[in-house]
User: What shape does this take?
Amino acid sequence: MTTVDRTQVFLLPDLGEGLAEAEIVEWRVAVGDTVTVDQTVVEVETAKAVVDVPCPYAGRVVALHGAAGETRPVGQPLITIAPPDGDGGEPAGHATYREEERAGSGNVLIGYGTGHGGTGRRRRRPRLAVAPEPSAATPAEAPAPAPDPVAVAPASPPVRAHPAVAPALAPAAGIGPRPALVISPIVRRLAREHGIDPASLRGTGPGGVVRRADVEAALAAPAPRLAPVPDRPEPPRPADEDLVIPLTGIRRAIADKLSRSRREIPEVTIWVDADATALVETRRAINAATPDQPVSILALLARICLTGLRRFPQLNAQVDTEGQRIVQSRGVHLGIAAQTDRGLLVPVLRDAQRLTTRELSVALAETTAAARAGALPPARLTGGTFTLNNYGVFGVDGSTPIINHPEAALLGVGRIVDKPWVVDGQLAVRKVTQLSLTFDHRVCDGGVAGGFLRHVADCVEQPALLVANV
Assistant: This one.
């Protein structure tokens, strides 16, 4: 009899934005584990972000291609999956696996889909595999219960039950703890980072699936939480030994981009001090009128930048060196510099000019939080046309930042601090900030750059000018 190889090899997918490789951060499964369609099997780090990679096949893991810390090229084998039974049969409880796999995955990961069928198919709702009916077999011969097709992989880092919800969901005597119904990699990451066991939560999604709102509700509960267990504690090293940090992943991408910016862009930085007292008072008045929809200072500064770029579109551009031309963007894709544990990232708000000031405030808060949590896809970290950098949060007044290549300009904002200021010929204490504009001298001259910066400073000092320009 001829043996048919029914294994399926999942190749490292195209992660988008021209990324050619990814570094394996952590395997979420091990050889011998059973996986389901769309279960996250590995966490990888690209030059843009850390990404959870779901597997499009259901079955048993027979090979992991690459170890943690190893870089794999796109299109090369990542994981090999065999049918759950391994001998061509279909044991009890695995029918759900096959239905899920035939239905195709609805998950999309940065430019690739794991679906196998036509685009018209709808993804089936997740559900538990049905255990076989009790038989007359002795306890030693009784079949094991079928695995849960949407359970979290057992190789996930250890987490603890949230004390606010665990007592109400304690398993009955003689029954093991129920597996967690979690599909979204973001939900798993959020629970893991806060030390919450998804199995301790009561899922409100279809079929009891734990949603992000369920995790956030547990975080908002008054009960104390245990600190999360570190994923990879650093091994001790001798005190007299140099610390060597590999330049890989996001850190390497940052270094490459900044070096390229310095090599290619003839940048100039200009700056001005501005009286931000009226801006602070305007924000206070807005938030007093609508406390349920607060607006941040950063959102007001973003609005000011958007009005300035409408007047000076030369700065919302980039230089195409190969085509020997300057390309001015129709929309403003606003980049926001955000410091994270993995380095400086610049997430992008696409077509920011279409957002109201309140919408800008919400989008800025959500985007920076997602960037710090490592939850943004690579597509959200590229394609910016202008960057706003609030380095004042570090307690500094000024800076000469490097332009985020291939953009043409970057506005920097220092801390707002009380300083002596002359008002109507009299010395007074005012809220003062320093504004700096770094621009590509190839796209414009000092007149345009100075006009933009002066517009920003005037709107900071007289926010009423925003009304005249909106």
